[in-house]
């Protein structure tokens, strides 16, 4: 259909491939909830994924968990809505306070690509499927 939709889909896939590479290097990613983790797994983004909404964690619990990983960087991939932006800002400040670099590159790029159409990470997989249907082909499984 639209070449702009094809470009968007290719850009999202490239971004997800880059995210996979970062996780394969051991960089952890922080998401909001279990459904976000499941979505990333569906998209074959596998690695050290931390949910901030698991078992009633506080911000301090999340920062402690990240600090215990002894990593110099963590990827923040929270939702694109107001709540997700607040969490991102709060965790960014907290991570900087414990000398862990918050990586916002993936979050910002995804938000700029899909932010008007997708409000959360868990909606990303269905959004990709919708784009694939609209362009009428599966660029992810080209053989």
Attribute tags:
alpha/beta, Dna Topoisomerase Vi A Subunit, Chain: A, domain 2, 4-stranded parallel sheet, 6 helices, globular
Write a concise synopsis of the structure shown:
This protein is α/β, with parallel strands linked by helices and 143 residues long. It has six helices and four strands, in the order αβαβαβαβαα. It has one domain: 3-Layer(aba) Sandwich (Dna Topoisomerase Vi A Subunit, Chain: A, domain 2).
Provide structural commentary.
The chain starts with a helix and ends in an 8-residue tail after the last helix. The radius of gyration is 15 Å and the shape is globular. The protein has a four-stranded parallel beta sheet with strand order 2-1-3-4. With 143 residues, the chain is α/β, with parallel strands linked by helices. The mean pLDDT is 90. The protein has helices at 3-24, 34-42, 59-68, 82-97, 105-114, 124-135, and strands at 29-31, 49-51, 73-76, 101-103. It has a single domain (3-135), classed as Dna Topoisomerase Vi A Subunit, Chain: A, domain 2 (3-Layer(aba) Sandwich). The longest helix has 22 residues, at 3-24. It contains six helices and four strands; from the N terminus they run αβαβαβαβαα.
């Amino acid at each position: 259909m639209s070449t702009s939709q094809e470009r968007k889909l290719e850009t999202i896939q490239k971004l997800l491939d880059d995210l996979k590479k970062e996780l394969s290097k051991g960089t952890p990613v922080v998401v909001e909830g279990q459904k976000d983790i499941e979505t990333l797994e569906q998209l074959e983004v596998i690695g050290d994924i931390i949910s901030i909404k698991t078992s009633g964690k506080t911000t301090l619990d999340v920062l402690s968990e990240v600090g215990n990983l002894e990593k110099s960087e963590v990827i923040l991939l929270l939702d694109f809505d107001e709540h997700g932006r607040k969490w991102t800002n709060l965790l960014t400040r907290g991570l900087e306070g414990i000398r862990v670099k918050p990586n916002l590159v993936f979050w910002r790029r995804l938000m700029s690509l899909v932010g008007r159409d997708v409000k959360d990470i868990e909606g990303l997989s269905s959004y990709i499927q919708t784009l694939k249907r609209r362009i009428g082909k599966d660029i992810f499984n080209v053989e």
